[in-house]
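Final report, Chapter 2: Outcomes

The project's central promise was a pipeline that accepts a single protein chain and returns its three-dimensional structure in a standardized token representation, suitable for archiving and comparison. That pipeline is now operational. To close this chapter, we reproduce one record exactly as it appears in the project archive, with the input sequence first and the structure output second.
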Amino acid sequence: MTEQTNFRYTLCFLTRGENVLMLKRRNPPNQGLWNGVGGHLEPGETPRDGVLREVQEETGFCLKTARFGGLLTWNGFETPPGGLFIYTAEAPP
């Protein structure tokens, strides 16, 4: 991956004990596959703020924090080259 990777997405794996919340994607890319919770970053939004917003929009959970877990990059596949910020967080009861 080049230095020009465009990190425009976030992804959060919500856990509760040994369980991980996964969503089955309805739309491309990866339609029909299981994934964590996430989406696009808004202009000027930090990755942490973006992942907290996406979790609330997609699950209704209002998290106060998420732990940075790493970066994922790709070149090709079903979308243009890019990358995303990966987080983990405890799901509320």
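Archive annotation: The chain has one helix and seven strands.
This record, like all others produced under the grant, will remain available to the consortium after the project formally closes.
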